[in-house]
Amino acid sequence: MSKILKKLSVMMLCITMIVISVIGCGSNAGSTESEVKANEGTNSGNDGADTQEGAGDTEKIDVKDMVTLNFTLFSIYDFSDAAAVQEKLNEILAEKYQIQVKLTFINSGSWTQQTNLMLTSDEVDVLTLFKTPLSTYVSNGQLLPLDDYYENASDAFKSVWSEDEINGTRVNGSLYSITNLRNFANTYDVMMSKEIAEEMKIDPAGINSLEALDELLYKVKEAYPDLYAMVPQTGAKMSGGWTWDGLGDQSYIGVLADCGQTDKVENLLATDDFKDYCAYTHKWYQDGLIMADALSNTETGYQLVKNGKAFCYLSNNSNVVPAGITMANVIPAWTESNSYASISYGINAATKHPDESWKLMEAIYTDAEVATLLIDGIEGIHYVLNEDGTISYPEGYDVSTIPYGGADQYWSFPNAALSLPLQANGADFFEELTAFNQNSSISIASGFSFDSTSVTDEYSACINVMDKYYNALMCGTIDPETSIPMAINELEDAGISKIIEAKQEQLNAFLAGK
Questions:
Q1: Residue 332 lies in a domain
Q2: pTM for the model
Q3: C-alpha distance across the termini of the chain, in Å
Q4: I need a surface site. Which of 32, 144, 213, 305 has the fewest CB within 10 A?
């Protein structure tokens, strides 16, 4: 695990950008192309041997008679060259699968609103499922069940995911989407300034608990009084969770403690780990170790450390170690119950072309040529191939200027293991990522999806209470000794007991059926 922890450098920073920088509007594949013409490059980095059984074994038809599928994905980088990539991709799809696609990239900030509109009709066929809980898509009748398609899928497709990974995108026993390759697990870490860590001869292995971190922060504050010893991971969020599994609920209204290794649903604010965490952060806040304006902070922890304003931040970056950072692991890698479903791919229930849509699903998950083009773009234009099998951006470009940013956003695509890793991540990056996932503990509720229909009003009321207290408690800006009892009382008044009862009942049924 330590090897991949050192190599991954961008994924969670990218996800953080989704949370704190909602920019731009949706972009369509038919919009601006790069000034460099696509036909000057070739896509030769991956041989892309056809791994789908039966691909191209039907009678050939003219391109003009092929079904064109709207394939919609989200973006956080520039994908203005999508039309050029689409053109190359359709050449492959026509030859091997006798289908065509229209690539549509929608900025993450506009994603939920635009895709909800698209799913009211047949405007989209295949799409990323993101931000909205999978159970919500299903309860809204927006997704096509995939059980029959998966049962008859190619061996190549079935070999991509383990049983746990496939079951992680089932709702009430039925398969509605297919997960994608990224880090399913998270470690929870202290991300420290590498320069200061080396100057103070800090041994990361010794910073393996909040107690050890407590001792270190006071030493750092004494040595560097002008720096913030600790800052939030991003914005007003001290860290993206800790040892509690929200059962698909990022407001944490009813959780499993102990990294999901218990089957008892509890009020997060009543758990020992939450109380201990908040006791430490409040102590640090009172003593000036945490920035005073933490709740109004708009920067990421990495930015503050990189710019010399802070020493460290807590992070669920798991296997991400940005440049200039030394990482100390506090909580070993574990996978939350909804991790497999947090980003996945599915088929619109309203599609007029379900069979062709599944054919596209098989292609994007099993065909290396298709995956490399879809993710990395066109060789010579969007990337150059290195001798070790990795890729780099062409001279004069980086992720902020390249007109097709898939290489850095690999974690959002279906199966990046078939594509080419960035040089910064190393030639074995995707193999190591897969191993990292396989060696992580998994919540016993993996694949569970809570249906909140029966407690909609209570759920909304409890969200308001958690919004009021959660970040403030996690950042240490309010006293947990007095604020936690107040918050618990308000949650009780809002109906949390009814929600926990409903979650427990559904979880018991889910576990009994596993």
A1: no
A2: 0.79
A3: 29
A4: 32
Residues in a beta bridge with 392:
384
Contacts of 33 (CB under 8 A, 6+ apart): 80, 81, 83, 84, 403
331 domain residue, yes or no: no
Residue position matching structure tokens 């609920």: 249
User: Can you tell me whether residue 101 is helix, strand or coil?
Assistant: strand
- Measured CA to CA, the distance from residue 449 to residue 446 in angstroms comes to 9
Tell me, yes or no, whether 218 and 278 share the same domain. yes
Letter string b/e over residues 244-263, b meaning 16 or more CB atoms within 10 A of that residue's CB: bbbbbbeebbbbbbbbbeee
- Same domain assignment for residues 35 and 152: yes
Q: Using an 8 Å Cβ cutoff, are 362 and 153 in contact?
A: yes
Enter the tokens of residue 454.
Answer: 């029966």
Reading the block at residue 356, the tokens are 């062709």
Is residue 157 located within the same domain as residue 196?
no
Instruction: Return the minimum-mean-pLDDT range out of 143-157, 359-373, 432-446.
Output: 432-446
Which amino acid type is present at position 468? K
Placement of tokens 């892309």 in the chain: 48
Residue 514 is predicted with a pLDDT of 78
What domain count does the chain have? 2
pLDDT in tens, 430-441: 998 998 898 899
Composition of the chain by helix, strand, coil, percent to 5: 45, 15, 40
